[in-house]
Amino acid sequence: MNGEPQTLTGLYFTAIDRYAARPVALRAKRDGAWRDLGYPTVAARVEGLSRGLLSLGIAPGDRVAILSENRPEWAFVDFAALAARAVDVPVYPTLTARQIHFILQDSGARAVFVSTAAQYAKLASVRHELPALEWIIGFDTDLAGPDLLSLEALERSGHAHALDGEAWRRRALQARPDELATIIYTSGTTGDPKGVMLTHGNIASNVRAGVAVLPVSDTDECLSLLPLSHIFERMTGHYAMFHSGVVINYAQSIDTVPPDLLAMRPTVVAAVPRLYEKIYARALESAVQGSPLTRTIFFWAKRVGEQWADLRLAGKPVPAALAVQRAIADRLVFRKIRARVGGRLRYFLSGGAPLSPEIARFFLAAGMPILEGYGLTETSPVITVNTPTHHRIGTVGRAVPGVEVMIAPDGEILTRGPHVMRGYFGKPAETAEAIDPDGWFHTGDIGEIDPDGFLRITDRKKDLIATAGGKKIAPQPIEGLLRQNPFIANAVILGDRRKFPIALIAPNFEPLEAWARAAGLDWHTRQELVALPAVLAHLESEAKKHLRDLARFEVPKRFLAVAREFSIESGELTPKLSVKRRVVEAHYRDQIDALYREAEVHGTGEA
User: What is the pLDDT of residue 254?
Assistant: First the structure.
């Protein structure tokens, strides 16, 4: 591993040279057809754009922003900016104009790349408030507007630049491991985002550590579906995959992931638990709505598969009778589920939020292991990960090579190593608070390490709910249990400093409305639907099916259903689909207070 490149530009040029003869590096759907881009094409586009940035006067350390969805141009510009020794600033395309303004102003970006007319319109509305911004470069060929330079025009100016290709490459490879590569603004669940400064060495060390323990090769293909603006997808689905020669297929959007999985048939996919929860809920829903025989076969297969999975994980032999049963279960049930994700998948990667052990066991039983890991933007991101050879469900794996992990006396997870950020951009006090004098980064998560070195996350330090009775409740695992139900799209557990916890439920309206019609209920709007006593009773009954193993004080005493799903646009979800607990609580404050008042009247006691 020590012989591998120590910078992102080194990783890029190594891959370009190593896989020059490979026919496909990237693949995206354009004009109704999937189109291949080979390594020579990538190399030519990156060189032209990078030299184009130099022709604009972009100097080492200058900030260049990327406001775009996942697409090949994102990769071109990222590699081009790094090769120009600029610092790129990825911006989530789901952000509002005001949020985009904050990031561009805070980072002092001199140039910004925008993908579509919709993104350009957001930028144009705040352009007059960004005096440091000198250039706007558009991806789509039909983009038009003041101060707008096309991608093609930038490439043409690059090819005319005085610095030739060899000199440009030598200059790019002069980047040092301690040189700043990117500033990534954390989406956060409260307050303004902070700019996380990651160096070439931070991310390159994480790429090397990741590919050392997770088997990928130039025979693999992945589907890039999480935002490249987030470090999880950027390190895992972009740098690590490109470095390893894996074909990167770009999902058209988050809504087209199911058909894209079928069309591209990837062998490796990185996603957040929400994707796995949806696949699991869909499988359960199909079984429950099927014939009595279908339901019986599905739940028999589930039991058999999980017994088989438990023995495999424990390293114990599988009895011949169970092996036969599992083969039958695979033919009748699991093979069909694998077919829905393309039928070639070797494993999933999961991060960003806790993964339910029940879902992990089900996927392993179905022949699609989910390797859960753990990390943060500030740690480039991977700290620990389960691997095919060292896999323990319910944990986030063991530390990757070169990374130290320990548990502080108060239970907080600390980490130290080459993956830890330089600091928060322009915020020395916050940096000093996060990284102690001995170099340990304080994650804000609570956890424990078992005797074999596997890390278990119990909750966010700041998310712990303390009821009025002094009981401590970790909400995230409970919310994960609730999301397993096909009638529940999302859930938030609330109750800090209250007598007892409640669950605020955002229903999955398609199955809920089908159930309500079958039950003969009458409603006109979703607001009317969730207000019906029969509907609330049904949702509460469904929710409690998943809460049987909780301590009594952890079980919500009241349930509140809302009339729409949480969304990024409403500010209730971060771009990586984490719930902003305080935003949700603020949006539904009146209903929450009314629920607690009603409970007081009816004498609900403390948890």
Answer: 87
